[in-house]
Amino acid sequence: MFHLNENYLTLSESYLFSEIAHRVSAHAQAHPQQKLIRMGIGDVTRPLCPCVVSALQSAAAEQGSAATFRGYGPEQGYDFLRERIRAYYAARGVLLEADEIFVSDGAKSDLGNILDLFSRENRVLIPDPVYPVYVDTNRMEGRPIVFADATEENGFLPLPDETLEADLIYLCSPNNPTGAVYDRAQLQQWVDYANERGAVILFDAAYEAFVVDPALPRSIFELPGAETCAIEFCSFSKTAGFTGTRCGYTVVPHALVRQGVQLGRLWLRRQTTKFNGVSYLVQRGAEAALSDEGLRQIQENLSYYRANAAVITCALDTLGIRYTGGKNSPYVWLRCPDGMRSWDFFDLLLQQAGVVGTPGAGFGANGEGHFRLTAFSTREATEEAMQRLKTLLG
Questions:
Q1: What is the pTM of this model?
Q2: Cα–Cα distance between 317 and 297 in angstroms, integer?
Q3: How far apart are CA 180 and CA 62, in angstroms?
Q4: At 199, phi and psi to the nearest 5?
Q5: 23-to-19, 346, 364, 381 alpha-carbon distances in Å
Q6: What's the distance, Cα to Cα, between the start and end of the chain in Å?
Q7: Per-residue pLDDT tens for 310-335?
Q8: What is the dihedral of CA 263, 223, 42, 88, to 10 degrees?
Q9: Tens-digit pLDDT profile for residues 32-71
């Protein structure tokens, strides 16, 4: 008899960003004259930097010649890119082997696909509020989930709780959605906690390039002992504007062993079976992004987004609204004014100011009463949106 995976039936009918798109579309149709400013979904607006574009063009030209044409590439990534990623980490004092690095089409894919390595019986610890992919991908497989409360009281940075037992632990720093960033002492507590219990930390470092404070870690592997308990996921999407180009990577250290097996070997086996690798063109573009000139050029874009974040936080300071993020992070997580609920504030901001953000309730129970704005819009749109906000709430 045919059977569905009934875990899918436990999911919410509408994914958070789909619901936002539905409401925005309905409003736009009803008010075609209003100019909407979108500061909800974390999609970038700055173009690919020149050296990346040049690398993509050169790689495309190579594919047009029989002498330089390339077909299937290595599923784990070309050596030229893995070595460039290794050097990127080494510049911050993190020493990796090239075969600990696995190139992919993005951190989101890997965060879901990594679960192939783990039993459905494993208990999962996820902070709340949280990026919905962590929760939904585990619910799709029926894995038990416990939540760690991230609240204003703990700066939206929950620390290990002896009463919460887990085999898999999701951490994201800088955090999506709250913009909060763990310091070294806080992150070390999680590393020690995981090593003591034999748990595995799934560390989402997609926004590491936004950290400017040298006292804050950008990789979990900056912490002693992390190599025996953590897998790190990173992306070129926000670092180099690859949201539409698609490239990321996952680091699985050789020292990460469970039940006598290196998890990196299992991940390699999974990838070579279910994944055919990232295109040669895209990997050449990613390599260029991590070159000396590429890093200089992408820093210009990152600085642009940081300045946008400063525009947002300045407006919130003027209005006396509490927030986290905006510094060392492209996200600003604010408390809804006057005790409003998240979706009510979403509708108010959309209908009366024409500004689109993300309601905190969509990220979990502790997100209720909060709201996320992103710094990825244009400067002009960001400034106009904050002027509209001040007019609406001032």
A1: 0.96
A2: 31
A3: 43
A4: -80, 165
A5: 6, 10, 19, 20
A6: 62
A7: 999 999 999 999 999 999 999 999 99
A8: -80
A9: 999 999 998 788 999 999 999 999 999 999 999 999 999 9
